[in-house]
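Notes from the 1:1 (GR / supervisor)

We went over the backlog. Supervisor wanted to see one worked example end to end before approving the batch request, so GR pasted a single chain during the call. The sequence is below; no edits were made to it. Supervisor asked that the structure be written out right there so they could see what the output format looks like.
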Amino acid sequence: MGMNQVNSELLHQNLKQFFGFEKFKGEQELIINNVLSNQNTFVLMPTGGGKSLCYQLPALMSEGTAIVISPLIALMKNQVDAIRGFASTDGIAHFLNSSLNKTEANRVREDVIEGKTKLLYVAPETLTKEDNLDFFQSFKISFFAIDEAHCISEWGHDFRPEYRKIKPIIDKLNHVPVIALTATATLKVQHDIQKNIGIQESKVFKASFNRPNLYYEIRPKVNATKEIIRLLKNNVNKSVIIYALSRKKVEELAQTLQINDIKALAYHAGMDAATRVLHQDQFLKEDVDVIVATVAFGMGIDKPDVRYVIHYDIPKSLESYYQETGRAGRDGGEGQCVAFYSYKDIQKLEKFMQGKPVAEQEIGKQLLIETANFAESSVCRRITLLSYFGEDTEACGNCDNCRYPKERFEGQEYVETALEVIAEMNEAEKFKAELIVDVLIGNESAEVRTYKLHKLQSFGSGSDMDPKFWSAVIRQSLVARFIDKEIENYGLIGLTELGRAYLENPHPFTLIQHANFEDSEEDAIALANISSAGDPVLVNMLKDLRKKISKQKDIPPYVIFQDTSLDEMSIHYPMTEDELSNIAGVGSGKVSRYGKAFLDLIQNYVKTNNIERPDDLVIRTVAKKSGDKLQIIKSIDRQVPLDEIADSLGIDIDTIIKKLEAIVYSGTKIDISYFVEDQIDEDRIDELYDYFMDVDDDNMTDALAEFEEDGYTENEIRLVRIMFTAEMAN
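Structure output shown during the call:
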């Protein structure tokens, strides 16, 4: 239909006839006109803005078949079903991908060649298959539509190498016009897409990225599961998507929600296709309220009334964050976007990048810095997000930073102090952030002494502030690009040119009084103790009971229950064996061995003092999948060396030691003496046994300080501690 401008009346007629709409949204009409004029077109339109109509309508109005390249098989089926829904014949739209058998694929080819098909959805792999080329040359193609076009750019959040093979095919097909569409793209990604498809001269249509109805909030990741349950209990019958990074976390979280009477299902790429479709349908039909998913979920989900999008883990780029939060409130109604953030998650994401090509790591690192900056910043969230996509806006009044501003303070002297320490340390070599903090506060740790860092002139120059404060200063210096972190080299930190320039010419620098973004779920109990959220009277009674039992059994008190476990008991008042086994550091072994005395004491205390237990805090938790645990215990029974057990599980020796600690501290009996006695000198084992027998606390810091100068390694001490605890407690 190579006319230059299509009659507006005709366009509206077709819009009404095919889609039942009275009018176009935003720039849809201009875009469709451009496509129908055989011009290359680039469309940047946020999720929910009506992207697919921009190629579906011109395809239905043009001579020939439009080829739509889409990365997701599930999405193709949805779109094809939708188009068939408002057309008289099924042949009008088809998809061609690996999910079809030979007969089905041939049927599709016949319909296309006979001219019945207006839209043919293909996966990039299908398009670029050698033996498909003849087929694509055998019929008239009206235009190519490349959906999710950010997949072609390695700066995009969802890069797929097979997208790079599209251009040579389009070139072979006599330069058919192209429309590229994406929901998120920075300027850099936009230019990269245009270059990689060869449409640099294309007309660019860009809709606003502002979604005024969405409320953005970042919370420190402390007790995230509990916070989520509380949030869901206060918002019953609302549709919610929760994103987590790993399949394991998705399943764990979905189970925890289910046993707390929340209608939730899991969704990730590791499930079989039928289950995924079933779960997606149950969510769309509202048989369940909550879907817990990896990023595999949501592309093409057209549920207009999702009220909450919750990120249990922070995404790896602002584009992913924008796209995932964009699934909330598409009907213009309430849309709450809550993300739980801990700097440890950024470090986890950095670890995933190790071993990737350097160029990819550099890109990944930049994207992560921007994400951390967004999460920790005190600036209006909307200003930061939109400026990332090249759009200006005023402060929005509809995000946590606008409603609850964080305190800021002048931090020039602190930044200078930190940079001076790093500069002096860099003269020897680069070190990790933890070690830089030790030098700042003047902590003569073993590692500091090993590298003789306590001899530095700047050692202890920041001793007036605590470690968490300095960690925050280092993170904000990373964001300001004064320092740089090498991912491949385990996060070693070095001063950048910008940092050197700042030291030569320091100027005022605003620091943000932080919500504690350093603490993660594991630290939550410790945090609860610091804020003395527990019941101090009960804690003392529990400690007395522990002391009494330790005297009877002639074992150190901490072997029975660690302090953190007693503190948590004083917060939750567990009254049953089930509830007690949910307390951190208490497993079924300890419940059966010591539980009765502690439960009697707590029940009695609650009754005598008329205590109302915090119901909303008594969250039922799921027994962790114990596949590894069972395998480790069985292997130890067979006296398999620990390094071999670690190899068979694909983990390192540090991780196996951590798992063993968890096993013995929760009261399971194991005997690793066969390995320890083979590895460690008998006298050393005796010395360590005597030490652990006499101390009130078995923490590693004290043990290392005691034995390190004699050349004991941390792993040696930890292994003997495991052997000791297992023997004594069990």
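Supervisor's comment: The longest helix spans residues 588-608.
Batch request approved.
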